[in-house]
Every structure is written in C-alpha cells, then in structure tokens.
Amino acid sequence: MVFFALSLVLGILVAESMYGAGVLIYLIPLFIFLIAISLVFAFKKSRKFAYIPIAVLVGFACMTSSNVAFNANTIASYQGEFTCTVASDIVVNDSVCKFYVKDINIDGKSYKYSGFVTCSIDEIDFNAGDTISIYGVLKAVEHERFDTFFASSLSKGVGYKIGASSVTFVCDGKLGFVDGVRHKIKKILYEYTDDYTASITQALVLGDKFGIDTDLYSDIKAAGLAHVLAVSGLHVSTLATAIYFLLKKLKVNPKISFGIVVALTFVYSMLCSFTASSLRAVVMSGVFTFASSFGQKKDDLSATAFAATLILLFRPYAIMEVGFLLSFGAVIGIFAFARPIEKVGMKAVDKISPKRHIGKRFVSVFAVSVSANLLTYPLVAYFFGRVPTLFLLSNFFVLPYIMAVYVAMLVLCLLSLVTTWGGFVWIIKFLLVPFRLYVGAVGSLNFATIPVSISIVGMLTYFAIAILLSRYVFLTRVQKCRGALIAASSGLVLGAICALVTVL
User: Fold this and answer.
1) Structural domains counted in the chain
2) What tens digit of pLDDT does each residue of 214-223 get?
3) 491 assigned to some structural domain
C-alpha cells in the first residue's frame, strides 16, 4: 500500500509539472507507462510490481482530469452583476466585509466553484443562506504549477476572488443541513460568549479559523499550538476513543461499535468541511478501530498510505497543500521515531526509579512531540521561515488541558443544539482562561519563534539523517531495509514537492 501511494504521488507530480504544456506532450507519460508495463510482465518475478506503473498512471490521470475540470468549469474573469448565495458568516474587520459565496450565476449560467468576497459596505442586510446580487470584479484563482495557494483554495471548493463594489439583498434562503448546523453553532457561540471565545471554539470544534484575529493567531503559532486549531488526528482520535470507550462500557458489539465510530467521525469530518487532516484522521481511526474490533494486527504505515491514497484519488491538489504535508509528515514522524525515543527515555527513567509515573508520562509526551516535529520542522521552516521554540512546554502542559477542554466544548455545543438553549456554551469562556493567559504570555516573548531558512539540499540532507537515526538504527534487518526504502522515498517526495513549488 505504501509504494502504491508513493507511485500515485509521483504520477500527480508529473501531471502538475506538465500543466499548461501542449497536448502532444501528454503522450510521453503514456508511452513510458506502456514500456514499464511491458517490462514488468516480461519478467515473471516482477509481475507483483505491476501496480507501480498503474498507480503512476492513475495519479497522472487524476491530476490531469482535475486540471481539465477546473478550466472547464470556471470563468477566467468577469466584471458586472451576478447573483450568488452567501455560504458563510460575514466577518467585518476595519470596515471591510469578508465572506464566502456559492451557486454563482452569471447571465443565467451557473458555475461550480465558490468565491471569496471582500467589500466595503455601510449596512449588512443579508445572512448566511440568503441570495444576493453582487456588482464587482470576479477573477478565477490563478493556477500556477505547484501553487500552494491554489491548492489550498480548491481544497475549500473556492475558485474565485471577488471584489464587490455593491451588494444587494435578493431573497431569503436556507442553508443545507450540514451548513445549517455549522452556522447555528457559530451563531450560538457569538451570541452567548465573546469574540475571543467564539473564534477559538469554532476553530477547535469546526476547524474554522476564519474569524480569528491575526495577532491572536500569531501568538498561538508562537506557542507551538497552531495544530490544535486544525481538526486533525488529535481531535478525531480523541473523539473516536471517547465514543469507542462509551460503547464498550455499554457492552455494544465490537463490530457494531466499529460502524458507529466510523459513521460519527465521518459526519464530524463533514461538519469540518472535509479538511485533509480530518479526512486522514477519520480513515486512520477507522482502520485502527476495525483492527481492534475484528482482532486484526495494526499496520501504521499501511493505514497512513491508505488514508493518503483515498484523499489524493478524489483531491489530487492536496499534495500541494501545506496542511496535507504537515499532517502526514507529523504522523510519519511519530510512527518512525516515537517508539525508539520512548524506549530510550523509559530505560533512563527506570534507572532512576521504576515507579516515577510523572517521569514516564513526560517521556511519552516528549517522544510524541519530538517525533512529530522531526519531519515537520523543516517543512515549517521552508514554507514559513520561522519555527516555534516552546513546543515541548506547550505540548506537555497546555495540550492535555486544551484537549480536555475540546471534549467539553463538543458536549456543550451539542447540548446547546439539542436543547435549543445556547447558555451551555457560556461555560467555555471560563475554560479558556488558562489557554488565553498562556498564549498571551508566550506570544510576547521574542524567542518564542526563531527565523530559520532551509534549502532543498539542506532539507534532503536532513531527511537522509532522519532515515539513519530511525529505521536504520532501531529495527531488525528486514525492517531496516523496508523502513529505509519507505523513509527515503517519502523524504525524496517531500523534497521534490518543495523544490517544484519554488522552482516552477
């Protein structure tokens, strides 16, 4: 499964590198594919590797078809009047309104992708779900090869940037069920709490950072806690574990429990707009729950590869998303480094005292935190130019608390929805006080983040050293070979993506 996923990625990268080229050049990959298939089937012992060229071709086809679909279903630019539906809450900062729209209709023709609107208007007389008329300039998101902004926009279904001169209310509308639930949660939060609490809660629960103040978000990143605002494996696994534990206490059949966990986490991911990190977490938690429910052996790398494959088959642009790379980089780092680091740390603690539970807890948190950052730090440095320094302190002391608060947030938001009384979420304001104080204190420190720059050569060198320190040292001979090959391939893929993003 791992090599299928890597081959799929290769096909996607090849297709994206050829974007904008002539039609005839697309015959080259097909020609290479036919040669590869012929060579594979020419040798009996190599036939089991036939999936590799097939996976490359599938990745190539997925990305090419996505590019064709985007170009066919968008209008490059338009200036004039058109109608659309408000698809999000309206955020106002410094007299500038920002919101998303969908169902864009120009001269009777509908367009597939949503749009991000910025405008300056004196009075807002429309809400989410309403139909409005906009007069302004609409431009499709520019698609350059290996453009991370383009990939991030398309992952949200956003294909246009709209500068509105005027906005006119047309008629009332109604949101779909999922959008309606999401909107109701936000409405309750802003009605019964303050802007700070509401923005943090909607980010933690829904993965929506749209309303977070820029300075606040900078402080959160400085504290090394930005990952808690993106619904990821940490959130989904916490939710899945809580549900599975409850079902186990209720003595529900394990096979039924598996179905319930998968269904509820999938609905939750839908509520979070199917972000790459939430989808990865849903697939992996589903695989692990299946293994626990049916008594099967867990395979971390295969589960990760399976999750990546599913996402990339339906959303090939995800390979260029920074969030996608960071999410999978963190998971691979944990699988590759956490156990060896924890093993060494536990031996050190046992030598001091075998009954030091706090020390062992610290070692476990230390191992996971360090291993998750080992493969993501170079990516963070490459894309953002700065890295946090206090992530260990944050993950050891603050993260367990904020995840407990996260569970409480889910319960309180659910109670508010079910009882139609939003007063439950008022409690969240007080639960976030320690988080608020910590983030504010850390954000004021000059050394909370440090500038770091890394080249492609430096990144590939870093990944090579990481391979030697993980798979090569701590595993058996067979595992060393397999792990080294996988790690090398993964490192090269990450490095190639970053290189192409910069060069092309």
Assistant:
1) 2
2) 888 888 888 8
3) no
